[in-house]
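A favour, since you know our structure tokens better than I do. Just paste the record in under my message, thanks.
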Amino acid sequence: MEDSTYKTLVNEMFQINEVSYKDYKKDDSKTSKKKINEAIHKVNSTLFKLEQVLRQNIKLKSEEFSDNDKVLWKTTEGKMNKIHNRMNTIFEMFQKLKSNK
């Protein structure tokens, strides 16, 4: 049986090549600037895919659940809070990368 488009998208979105920082830094095939540029490009692409997934789920939620339906939130509220905290941490890391310091 073939995977759905949604499942394929999610699998592609979260594919990460495991490599240690030491190996990443020693890789002479690309300059440091090129490595950073490619990483930012990959992050941007992944964020675009994440936005698509979120938009689809916001639409699904608004179509399928009433304002009083709390079943979804009982099981996901803790996970959503963790994601929110991680996004704040990622934003701070991005600010450090973006700064000239």
In short: Residues 36 and 97 are 9 Å apart (CA to CA). Helices lie at 5-13, 21-26, 32-64, 71-98. The two ends are 52 Å apart (CA to CA). Residues 5-98 form one domain.
